[in-house]
């Protein structure tokens, strides 16, 4: 196809059933296209307040420091870890996939003394092993883990892990990028001190924003840091003044105004549906998919007890060309699924049923297309 750089870009219509981004509802796309207003306009400040309330509901937290940082989920990871840890601080990172590995990298760059606890990819973080690691080393101040590992399709037990951290008096940093909106998050009950998510997984908004939340204890800790937060842009005490300034909002940066309209609409739709109904819809789509794959003789990677409904890792049948199947699905059937990462590359497909994607009719569309591709 001959294109000129000055031709408008028109993306193809795809059904997004990979590890994110997920399908975005037309209502959210329409909200993104609403007229841009000033970021200190009283009307916009009203929208920021509503976003904060909706995020508090999503995370089940009373944390006043609940807002979004401008940037994808990775920026939320930077914001949480780099605000919490200082050079020399000991942090335990429980790792069972790609995103736990990345947490290690971020903490190390922040100068932290990183202790790692590794679990086999495809299994959950074991609270008993975390307990043992924390018992062994009393200098550890923080525990970080990924609630929903998108690289493997595993859900770890936030409550059990939080209880262990509470017992040892360590602060908890939790990645909820893929869990938020798809499975329950009880931030206050589990004792989570810092968490972050992303918009393009189960929240079904476009990528580019990272909702975060910090407990009062975390804020107190950050205020008493001996050194400044490495990143000026992500220094939570300053971003807070912009989001929560109670009538005296100070200019910090220019909020991504239209992106926040989109997130508002996505969260509004989620809360109108009801979180419980959304979780049930994710479970139903997941069960439908697993039944369909097993009927076709395929096998799931993860044991049923810790399977993540919104991210399904299925073993690629022997003799099947991984890349060719994904390419065919995308270019002939307009369906995107994900490849395996790291040690799982070439071994599994990652099928995301996230947000708007978590519907049994989308599962049927995928299974029908997969049958055709595998037959050819
Ligand atoms: C997608 C993802 C991230 C990173 O988010 P980006 O928006 O891609 O930067 C972090 N953690 C988990 C668990 C994820 O699934």
Report on this structure.
- This protein has 376 residues and is an alpha/beta fold.
- The chain is 42% helix and 15% strand.
- It contains 13 helices and 14 strands.
- The protein has a seven-stranded mixed β-sheet, sandwiched between helices. Strands 11-14-13 form a three-stranded antiparallel β-sheet, with helices on one face. Strands 1-12 form a two-stranded parallel sheet.
- Helix 7 links the parallel strand 8 (171-175) and strand 9.
- Helix 2 (42-59) crosses helix 10 (257-273), helix 5 packs parallel to helix 6 and helix 11 (275-295) packs parallel to helix 13 (360-375).
- The longest helix has 21 residues, at 275-295.
- The chain is globular.
- The two termini are 26 Å apart.
- Bound molecules: pyridoxal-5'-phosphate.
- Pyridoxal-5'-phosphate is lined by residues 20, 72-74, 77, 99, 146, 150, 175, 177-178, 198, 207.
Q: At the first level of CATH, what is the class of the largest domain? A: Alpha Beta
The kinds of small molecule bound in this structure are: pyridoxal-5'-phosphate
Number of strands: 14
Q: How is the quaternary structure best described? A: single chain
Strand proportion: 15-25%
Number of helical elements? 13
What is the mean pLDDT?
Answer: 96
- Biggest β-sheet: count, sense, barrel? 7 strands, mixed
Based on CA atoms alone, the radius of gyration comes out at 21 Å
Distance between the termini: 26 Å
The topology string of helices and strands comes to EHHEHEHEHEEEHEHEEHHHHEHEEEH
CATH topology of the largest domain: Aspartate Aminotransferase, domain 2
Give the domain tally: 2
Do you know the CATH architecture of the largest domain? 3-Layer(aba) Sandwich
| Global morphology | globular
Give the neighbour order of strands across the main sheet: 2-10-9-8-5-3-4
Estimated helix fraction: 40-55%
Query: Unreliable segments (pLDDT under 50, ≥5 consecutive)?
Result: none
Q: How would you classify the helix and strand content by structural class?
A: alpha/beta
CATH evolutionary superfamily of the largest domain:
Type I PLP-dependent aspartate aminotransferase-like (Major domain)
């Amino acid at each position: 196809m001959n294109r000129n750089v000055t031709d408008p870009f028109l993306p193809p219509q795809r059904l997004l059933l990979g590890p994110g981004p997920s399908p975005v509802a037309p209502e959210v796309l329409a909200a993104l296209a609403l007229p841009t207003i000033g970021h200190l306009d009283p009307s916009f400040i009203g929208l920021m307040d509503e976003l904060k309330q909706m995020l508090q509901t999503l995370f089940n937290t009373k944390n006043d420091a609940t807002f979004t940082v401008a940037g994808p989920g990775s920026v939320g990871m930077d914001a949480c870890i780099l605000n919490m840890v200082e050079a020399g601080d000991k942090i335990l990172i429980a790792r069972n996939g790609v995103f736990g590995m990345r947490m290690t990298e971020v903490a190390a760059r922040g100068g932290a003394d990183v202790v790692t606890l590794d679990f086999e990819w495809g299994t959950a973080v074991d609270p008993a092993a975390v307990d043992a690691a924390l018992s062994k080393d009393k200098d550890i101040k923080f525990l970080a883990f990924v609630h929903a590992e998108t690289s493997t399709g595993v859900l770890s037990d936030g409550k059990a892990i939080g209880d262990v951290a509470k017992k040892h008096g360590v602060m908890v940093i939790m990645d909820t990028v893929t869990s938020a909106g798809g499975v329950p998050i009880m931030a206050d009950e589990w004792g989570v001190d810092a968490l972050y998510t992303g918009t393009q997984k189960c929240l079904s908004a476009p990528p580019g924003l990272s909702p975060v939340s910090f407990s009062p204890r975390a804020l107190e800790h950050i205020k008493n840091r001996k050194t400044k937060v490495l990143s000026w842009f992500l220094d939570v005490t300053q971003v807070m003044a912009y989001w929560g300034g109670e009538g005296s909002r100070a200019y910090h940066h220019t909020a991504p105004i239209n992106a926040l309209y989109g997130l508002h609409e996505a969260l509004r739709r989620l809360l109108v549906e009801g979180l419980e109904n959304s979780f049930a819809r994710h479970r139903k789509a997941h069960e439908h998919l697993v039944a369909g794959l097993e009927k076709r003789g395929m096998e799931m990677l993860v044991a049923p007890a810790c399977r993540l409904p919104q991210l399904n890792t299925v073993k690629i049948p022997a003799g099947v060309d991984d890349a060719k199947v994904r390419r065919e699905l995308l270019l002939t059937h307009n369906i995107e699924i994900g490849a395996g990462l790291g040690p799982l590359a070439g071994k599994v497909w990652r099928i995301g049923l996230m947000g708007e994607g978590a519907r049994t009719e989308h599962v049927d569309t995928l299974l029908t297309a997969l049958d055709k591709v595998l037959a050819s």
